[in-house]
Structure formats: structure tokens, C-alpha cells
Amino acid sequence: MAPQTRRMPFPKVVIERDSDSNQSTSDDDDDGEEAECSLSESETEFEDAAENGKTDEVEIGNMGMMKKGKELLSKKKGDVPLTIRLQKVCKVCKKPGHEAGFKGATYVDCPMKPCFLCKMPGHTTMTCPHRVASEHGVIPAPMKNTQNYLEYFFLRQIRPNIHPIKPAYVIPDQVCCAVIRYHSRRVTCLEFHPTKNNILLSGDKKGQIGVWDFDKVHEKMVYGNIHSCIVNNMRFNPLNDGTIYAASADGTISFTDLETGISSSLMNVNPDGWQGPSTWRMLYGMDVNSEKGVVLFADNFGFLYMLDMRSNNKTSEALLIHKRGSKVVGLHCNPVQPQLLLSCGNDHFARIWDMRKLEAGSSLYDLPHKRVVNSAYFSPLSGRKILTTCQDNRLRIWDSIFGNLESPSREIVHSHDFNRHLTPFRAEWDPKDPTESLAVIGRYISENYNGTALHPIDFIDITNGQLVAEVMDPNITTISPVNKLHPRDDVLATGSSRSLFIWRPKERSEPLEQKDDRKIVICQIPGKKYKQKFGGESDDDSDDYGFASKGKNIKLEKRKAKSTPYPRKGKH
Length: 572
Description:
Layout: E1 13-17, H1 27-51, H2 63-77, E2 82-86, E3 101-103, E4 106-108, H3 129-132, H4 149-158, E5 174-180, E6 187-192, E7 199-204, E8 209-213, E9 220-223, E10 231-237, E11 240-248, E12 252-257, E13 263-268, E14 283-289, E15 294-299, E16 303-308, E17 319-320, E18 328-333, E19 340-345, E20 349-354, E21 365-368, E22 373-378, E23 386-390, E24 394-398, E25 410-413, E26 428-429, E27 438-442, E28 447-449, E29 452-454, E30 457-461, E31 467-472, E32 482-485, E33 492-496, E34 499-504, E35 519-522, H5 528-531, E36 562-563
Parallel strand pairs: 1-2, 5-35
Antiparallel strand pairs: 3-4, 5-34, 6-7, 7-8, 8-9, 10-11, 11-12, 12-13, 14-15, 15-16, 16-17, 18-19, 19-20, 20-21, 22-23, 23-24, 24-25, 26-27, 27-30, 28-29, 30-31, 31-36, 32-33, 33-34
Helix pairs in contact: 1-2
């Protein structure tokens, strides 16, 4: 027969919550908490000793503690309730007495920290001058762009491709079609097909690659057996546009046929398998250099790899291009000067390299930043400008790679610093803009539109910092960190959580009241947890169901997708 143990009565627990005041608790309350903690520890010691029948053998440092312990034992017999106090704790500074973060559509700043938007003290996020006017403090680009003889000759070579008159911007500001819950995890990258205008590719956190014909809407496919975890980058094969390269955090470079879905692993940087997190290599930045016939990709230890596109073999050993142990999150080859390579990483630097003499520490220029650099791109037509996105809520622009690169030509404050599980925001050029002055990027801080918290997508003129347009849809309440402009059509693709959206310019002559003809596809996923209204698979998909839906029939709001165009002056 098993021995029976005497069950001690569990004390009654009383939970008290502090008042809603934003003031910190007084010193007396803190002292009281310390006293309660010391009492509880002493109580535990004496209870253990009493159960073992060795109360007399418990060693007490002084007579005061002995007396306190006896009082606790006597109180224990009377079932004295224990009091637990719940205090407000700020999620930003981790201190009690106040709260910070989003309150509906309004961001409340932590009083112990500077402005969340511009990172400067003296004001709040709601009253930040950069929030009122995005061009605040920005020095506009000079009208005369030529700065030296080298740039002058360079511009003469590409001048036939530059439009003499700056045309008006065409902004895709209305959702025309979408596929909801297309991926099983959040979207991480997007890529348009180089020759088929209606094909969009998307990668997600689970390692899947989706192929979607957004003109026919219902024609879509997801290949789930290519990678085992997050797809960080995708690039089309310039020799065969029916195939694509993908870099994943599972440490492999895949080569996939989009028609059949058949994929092969070209390279695995973890040949020995999992040996622990300290040695596991994940691939992030990637680009294709068609002139040299190589695929370039980089890992989370600061190393660059090159793969020959014809033989699918490594062309050289791994090369350290950023601080050892830091992620290289972006690679971009100059579209006009293919020997120039731009890289960026978690070591707070963007670097320009000459691929003809790649060696560790041989970068042509190092562009310093204050925090992690999410992306860095050459301008799409001339390749002479540089646009970077940094986690310090700054977009930095260098107007000429032939000029002074010690400091950026201008810095634009923009909200893209985040404190949750999201794909990093990246500002991208408009590849159709002949003036190379328009960039698109999602916004983190939400805005209150008719009582709904919406996260707009911003179109910014990088020559003066002005907000050209902010586009949003009342049905999309999730954050849109992944955005891609079409290289030929006036189309914007957005990856928001697990869904994809296609934006086109709104017809300005259409009547105010018009039947909503958008094409929306809802991908149903089995399982009880997906049937909940705000359910989710993981911490990064907590806002998956931001697109308004009720029951099985989706009723889209009749409010039109909103956009706020800003007047701009152009040459005529």
C-alpha cells in the first residue's frame, strides 16, 4: 500500500490590480513587495522544515528572522490569504507604472524613451514634425545633377534612355484582386515574372513558393516541398525565365521549374546537418549577375558565395564581406556597371564592391548606418543612385556613386521600425520611373481612418522627401511590409501577412457610387484553429484575418480604397 502524505491546505489567493493611473508606484509599495517576497521565502523554508519534523534544525541568521518565522507558522494555521499585486509594465522599457504601444490606431510613446518615429526627444510620435510633413528637414536634390566630369561622361552614355521631361506619377491606389490566406505562413518576398506580365511569385516563412496568375485570379499554385523554412530571396534565371533561384534559411539554394514544380538543391552550406545554432548557416541576400553568369548569395555569418549558372558549381571559396557573425541581408548588382556589387547587413553598413577584385576588406566604399540595414539598391535605370532602408526609421539616398559617399545626400524619416514578428520593410525603386525619384514602402505606424486602424503603403519622392501618395484599403487592416512594383505595368503587388493583393490605378472618371467588381479568392485551410475569427498558427500570423470577413460569404465594404495624392510640381 502506498504511503499516504498529509495534504496541506492551500492558502486563499487574493489578486489585486493597481489603479489605471499612469504614475509609477511609490517607494512604500516597492518596500512592501520586497517584504512580501522575503516573507514568502521564509515561509517556504519553515513549511519544508515542519513537514520533515526538523523545525528546530532550521538555521536562522538572526533572532529577528526566527521570530518572524514563528509568526508565519502561526499565521499559516489560520489560513491567512496571500496577496498578489498585478502592476502595469511597459513593453518598451520594461518598467512598471505606465504602458506604451498601440491604443487602437494611436501609438502611445513610452515616457522613458524618445519619439518612436524620429528617435529624437522633446515630442511624441503623434506630434512629431516628420509625421506632419515627411519632407521636414530634407535637403532637396539640386536641379543640376552633374557634379563632376566622371558623372558627366557616364550620363552621356545613358542619356538616350532618360526621359527629357519628368512625367506625372501614376499611382496604383485601388485593390483589383486578391487571394486571402494564400500561404500558410507570412509572405517574405515577391517577384514579378520577367516576360509574363500577369504572373507573380511569392515566398513565405514556411519555405513555400507560390505562383499566381492575378489576371485569371483562380489560377494559382503553391509548391511546398522546395524548402523547409523561410524563403528570403528569389531571382529568375536570365537564361530561362521558366526557372527560378531561391535562397532559404535552411542553408540551401534551390533551382525550381515553375511549370512542373520540380526543384533541385544546387548548394547546401550545411553539409553536415544540424550541429547547433552556433554553426548553422542561413542564406539571406541573393542576386543574379547575368553578365558574369553567376548567382551571388550570402549567409548569416557575413560570407559571400558565388555559383556558376551553367555548371551549378561554386566558382570560389566563401568570402567574408561583412563583420564576422553578422547577417548579409541584401545583395544587388549594378544594372549598368555589372562589376559593381552593393551589399548590406546587420553590422550597420552598406558596402560597394568591385567584383573584379573581390577580397576580404577590399570594399570600394563603406556606407555607415546607425542600425541594421534592411536593404540597399542601386537605381534601376542608370545605376548611379543608392537607396537604403535602415531600422532607425531612415531612408538614405546617395545621388551619385561617383560623388562624395562619406554621408548620404539626404535622409528621409519614415515609420518602418517594428517590434513584432514581421518581414523587414524595404523601400524599393519604381522600375518604370525614368527620373529614378519614386520609391514605395509600407508603413508600420497605423493611421485612424473612420475609426479603423489602417497601415498605408507610402509612395515617396526621394529627391525632396515629399509623400506623393499613401494608399490603403478599408478591408486591409494588417501591416504590408512586402511591396513590389511591376517592371512594365502600373501594378503594385503587396504581401500582407499570408495574403496577396494587386493594386491598379483608379479610374478618375468613374462615378462615386459603383458596384465593387474586385476579384477576391479565399483559400480555406482545414482545422479548428483556423475557423476562429482571429485565430492564427503562430506569433507572426496573429493579424492574418485583418481582411474583413463574416462567415462563409465574404462581404466587402463598399467604401472605396482610399488614397491621398499630394500635389507636386513637374516640368512641362
